[in-house]
Amino acid sequence: MESFTSYDLIIGASLIIIFSYLFGELSKRTNIPSVLMLIVLGILLKLGLDSAGVQDYDFIPILQVIGTVGLIMIVLEAALELELERDKLVPIAKAFTIALLCLLGSTYIAALILRYFLPDMTFEQAFLYATPISILSSAIIIPSVNTLRKDKKEFHIYESTFSDIIGILMFYFLAGGFESGAPSSPTSLFSNIIITLVISVIASYILVYLFQHIKSHVKLFLLISVLLLLYALGKKMHLSSLIIILIFGLMIANMEMFFKGRLASFLHLEKAKSIYEGLHVITMETAFVVRTFFFVIFGLTISLGSLLNFEVAMISMLIMISIYLIRYILLRLFIGNNIHPQLYIAPRGLVTVLLFYAIPKEAFFPGFDPGILLFIIIGTSLIMTYALIKDKSKSMKAVNQANDLPIETIKWTPPSSDDIVSTKEH
């Protein structure tokens, strides 16, 4: 068989992006996450490549690079959407608390389930493997909740973003213990976060100030490159680099809040707003492209045979039941009775896959079947899809019922002669 030419790759990449756009439009009409369609597209491509005799390909390194860039773009995109206003402090605090407790509770229960079915796995390994499974996917949630009421939409943006950030911090905290050969202490994690926050705030102020004064029209991708550089350098220094991206996004989205008092003299509002608007568009477009290729390549790397494994299905189902049970308890506790469809919007996705491939070799457990990830990703996405479709149909039904309400007939009675006289006098 002839090897692929550069033109074949260009054609393939272009068609994937076109299909991704069409999937996005279809998702708006059906509420089926476009991510699921992209994974299916990747599976179909895998079957096509296998039938054509092309089997000696390794997409894992590409998946890791694309996943990292995608994660940065998604967090930046989410941060640019967050408005820090005083009246939103309570919703943000609730979303943070729910994200944190859901993550910790789901990770602990999932670790117990893994230990039960895989007794040779240590609890430390089980906890590390359970962490990616317990993180919400902002890559799936943020594009999927546009049809929800504003307060519910904002809750999901806050919650999924916090879940990503906290989950990634926890994962690398646990992974660091395996790499160093000694468990990491909570003190080191706390000091790591404080150092990262200080660096993030200083770097963000400097970037906003400097990029206001760049007159060249080609500066937005330069800014993204600087952010990617800071993220990579931070990871080399074992810092929680994602905080850098989050703080910068929050600062440029809420610049008037951060540039107060003496700092206000360093802000040129019109120039800074133009940077924000351009960055918002480019981030959204880049996140779309990166997300597209990530999930298609993920589809190319998975094995469908694992879905037919009874043990894989049992482990996955028990973990999913625990996810929604813990979520139900916390949502009822912090939000109340009105928890639909929030209860069912808990998909796993990009971060889950990315962190799974980042598990250090010192913690690797050969008995863990990656099909568990696929089962949970597909299962939680389908549950979210059903909930969103049901919520949308319920909203449309309510609107139709309001439109069909009978209009009360107003009976007209002719004015009396006294009324006519009174009107003329006035």
Based on the model shown, name its key terms:
426 residues; mainly alpha; 16 helices; globular
Written account of the structure:
- This protein has helices at 6-30, 34-51, 60-81, 89-117, 123-133, 138-144, 150-180, 186-212, 220-236, 242-253, 255-258, 269-301, 310-334, 350-356, 371-403, 417-425.
- The chain is mostly helical and 426 residues long.
- The radius of gyration is 26 Å and the shape is globular.
- 38% of the residues are buried.
Overview in brief:
The chain is an all-alpha fold. 73% of the residues lie in helices and 0% in strands. Helix 3 crosses helix 7.
In terms of topology, how is this protein built?
Elements lengths: L5 H25 L3 H18 L8 H22 L7 H29 L5 H11 L4 H7 L5 H31 L5 H27 L7 H17 L5 H12 L1 H4 L10 H33 L8 H25 L15 H7 L14 H33 L13 H9 L1
Note the main sheet. none
Q: What's the rounded overall pLDDT mean?
A: 85
Q: What's the count of strands?
A: 0
Alpha-beta classification? mainly alpha
Order of helices and strands: HHHHHHHHHHHHHHHH
